[in-house]
């Protein structure tokens, strides 16, 4: 996907510059034509000669240097790029992008760019969590800028937390996703649910399940890579948002229903991968429940069936259901498929080794209303997500959903 693509790598000042060297190398090995723009601060960490040797192209540093392309330097660079990646992206460059400031060559090129942009933030946790930085990131996402990371972990400043730049391999994967936006689902809108909902018992306890959200997040990323505009309604999950995906965070089944219905009308594709609680406490305690020397009774009431509600309203949409079972899996999944009016259901037996909640792999089968089934061997959840996306594309191009 990256072969012969013209990629600008914008490098700003931060200790994560060393990862940008690896990133430039990986992009080059995949066949991309890489041109590097460095800020003065970045050049204080790594010499431009390093990037020149890796990219095979001159490194751009200043706005008023002799043009190497036919146009004014910043305009020529911006117009001739298939993708711009900023890694590491400091709080300063994010602020410049959000506010339209252009104090140097990189920010000027970004202001003139009309193609896709991917940023990989890297900074101290306090700087990343500052309201200004979060507002700038939210504004950039709303404008269509893709954001990779940051990750959580140990930072160069000695602290630990969010702010570590994503690994170069993950940024390359995000770049592929952006460049595939012209894929077969371009112009389609997808709605994906993920994670396990939580139903509060009191202010410190809840009824939940073991879902990590990995499967739903993988599906959201795969649909975005195929060109769809994706909204991910996520119950609590310690996962990074896939590039190009808009996340809506919820906690309970009722909150998930509200968020799903808000986006459902404008969606062409709906994938219900979340593990939604069937019941919730009738009256959650206002204060923490203390031990009282005996049993207590917790009265539960049934939650709305979100999937069934969507099935009744489906019309000309593709609706995908999930069934995590521990016994009589196919029988129960087929019954669920009929009740919910889905186009197909993804069945997995969570008792099988390598399948189910919390794992990076899964063993699934696709079941269809006509009675057919497709069984798959052990695969990564990313591979499963790609198979689901392929099946959604097939359904769209059968004729009735073109």
Question: What do you see in this structure?
Answer:
The chain is an alpha/beta fold and 402 residues long. It has two domains: 6-179, Rossmann fold (3-Layer(aba) Sandwich); 189-396, Rossmann fold (3-Layer(aba) Sandwich). Helix content is 35%, strand content 23%. It contains 14 helices and 21 strands. The strands form six sheets. It has an eight-stranded mixed β-sheet with strand order 12-11-8-13-16-17-19-20, sandwiched between helices. The protein has a five-stranded parallel β-sheet with strand order 2-1-3-4-5, sandwiched between helices. A two-stranded antiparallel sheet has the order 6-7. Helix 13 links the parallel strand 16 (318-325) and strand 17 (344-349). Helix 1 (17-29) runs parallel beside helix 3 (48-55) and helix 5 packs across helix 8. The model has no long low-confidence stretch (mean pLDDT 87).
């Amino acid at each position: 996907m990256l072969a012969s693509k013209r990629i600008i790598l914008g490098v700003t000042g931060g200790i994560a510059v060393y990862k940008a060297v690896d990133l430039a190398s990986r992009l080059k090995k995949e066949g991309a034509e890489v041109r590097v723009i460095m800020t003065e601060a970045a050049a204080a960490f790594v010499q431009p000669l390093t990037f020149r040797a890796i990219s095979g192209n001159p490194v751009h540093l200043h706005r008023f240097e002799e043009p190497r392309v036919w146009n004014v330097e910043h305009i020529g660079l911006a117009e001739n790029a298939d993708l711009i990646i900023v890694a590491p992206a400091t709080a300063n460059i994010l602020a410049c992008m959000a506010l339209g400031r252009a104090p140097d060559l990189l920010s000027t090129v970004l202001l003139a760019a009309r193609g896709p942009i991917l940023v990989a933030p890297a900074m101290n946790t306090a700087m990343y969590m500052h309201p200004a930085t979060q507002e700038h990131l939210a504004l950039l996402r709303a404008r269509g800028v893709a954001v990779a990371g940051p990750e959580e972990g140990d930072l160069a400043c000695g602290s630990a937390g969010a702010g570590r730049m994503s690994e170069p391999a993950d940024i390359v994967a995000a770049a592929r996703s952006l460049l595939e936006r012209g894929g077969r689902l371009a112009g389609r809108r997808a709605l994906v649910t993920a994670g396990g909902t939580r139903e509060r018992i009191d202010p410190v306890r809840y009824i939940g399940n073991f879902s990590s959200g990995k499967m739903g997040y993988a599906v959201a990323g795969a649909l975005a890579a195929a060109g769809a505009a994706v909204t991910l309604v996520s119950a609590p999950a310690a996962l990074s948002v896939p590039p190009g995906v808009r996340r809506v965070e919820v906690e309970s089944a009722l909150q998930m229903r509200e968020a799903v219905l808000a986006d459902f009308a404008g969606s062409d594709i709906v994938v219900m991968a979340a593990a939604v609680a069937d019941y919730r406490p009738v009256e959650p305690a206002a204060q923490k429940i203390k031990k009282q020397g005996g049993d207590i009774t917790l009265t539960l009431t049934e939650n709305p069936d979100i999937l069934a509600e969507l099935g009744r309203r489906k019309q000309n949409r593709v609706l995908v259901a999930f069934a995590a079972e521990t016994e009589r899996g196919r029988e129960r999944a087929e019954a669920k498929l009929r009740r919910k009016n889905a186009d197909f259901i993804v069945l997995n037996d969570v008792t099988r080794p390598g399948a189910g909640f919390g794992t990076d792999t899964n063993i699934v089968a696709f079941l269809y209303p006509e009675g057919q089934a497709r069984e798959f061997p052990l695969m990564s959840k990313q591979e499963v997500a790609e198979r689901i996306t392929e099946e959604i594309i097939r359904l769209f191009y059968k004729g009735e959903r073109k």
